[in-house]
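call fold(seq) -> tokens
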Amino acid sequence: MYPIDELVYVEEIKAVTVKIEDSVAPTVLITGVAGGTTYGDSLDLEIAWEAIDSGSRVKSVTGTLDGEPVMSGTVQSLYKLALGEHTLTVTAVDNTGNQTVQTVKFSIETSTDDISALIDRFEAAGKLNGTGAAKLQERIAKVMVSEDKGRERDKKKLERFVETVNDPKIVSDAQVRTLLLRDLDALIAENGGTPES
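ret:
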């Protein structure tokens, strides 16, 4: 007989399956962009999201901007997107397969203020030289004066701006030229004119 303090009791290992009852889909919170809002194309937006699920927990969260994958926390330079409407879609799935799809539609437009800000931005990035940037600012300032006086944008002033942008001595970077011409076309069309480029 063994003394009591030497007895060892070993219990067989047992497996227990626990089924989590979760019929509630995750909650998705999107920040940095608001549905139905129109933004100027000179802005940058830090678009981010978070998914919360108190039941079985979040398994995956994915985002797309106009159908292309995008990461949460991405700083999006709006001038790199087309003018018009855009769609951000975030999909969250929890560990039991419940899914939430959150969609935010927003728009991008341009203005003389946006064009002026983009000229400064491109100069700071080395895509425009100081002389070229100053000439462009001079041209856009003349269009702004017409706006400030409550008159329609002067077609001649916009045409001169287009000529200035098309001068390779002033705008040598093809991407900058294309972008500025796109924005000018939008301003001209907005005022019932025919785009120049």
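The chain has a mean pLDDT of 88.
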